[in-house]
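Pilot study result, target chain (199 residues):
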Amino acid sequence: MKRRGRKRKLGHRHRSGDLIRIRESPALRAAAMPHRKGLKDPLNQLAESELGRLQLRGKLEPQQVAAGQEYARLYRSYMATLAGPATLTNGSGGGSIDCGGCLGMVGAAMCICERRKREYLRAHAAIAATGHSHWRLTQRVAIENLPISLANVDTLGIALWALAQHFGLLTKSKKGVLENIPSTTASSHGLHLPPQGRR
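Predicted structure:
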């Protein structure tokens, strides 16, 4: 008669009969993840997004990454209002704001849907001023979290500097180098952007 129950697990055991558990290093596990390979600091939380990985590789500045993250937040907030519920969460206070289901309040200053739309469209316009290819790369990296070729990083950087300028994220040190325009594309659209950081 066969013994019933779960099969005995294979592996080396202690004298007590307990399996010897191999402690895996979190750093080694993180370094083995496909999206973290090749990074000097695979445990850094920035490695979870394509924007963050570009910063860890020295291709983007922190202000550019922060601008991309804020743009993605505005995009998702606006998307949530399209065919969304009447009551939307107000992230700042933890409560909720009911715009009345937008009945009679469409476009009003108190309508949270309209406010989110305005904030997103203003940020979108800041990118659109740099050109369609810049906007498309920003969508791909900041919102879709997809990689791009190194040849397109400078183009992405121009759009992110425009966003950083729009959000007021540029520090005094960066404002001091706004006169250095690294791209004829940026110049043609009236943008004064600092050169890409290199490490």
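One observation from the pilot: The helical segments are 26-32, 50-56, 62-81, 112-128, 132-143, 153-167, 172-175, 184-188. A full batch analysis is planned for the follow-on phase.
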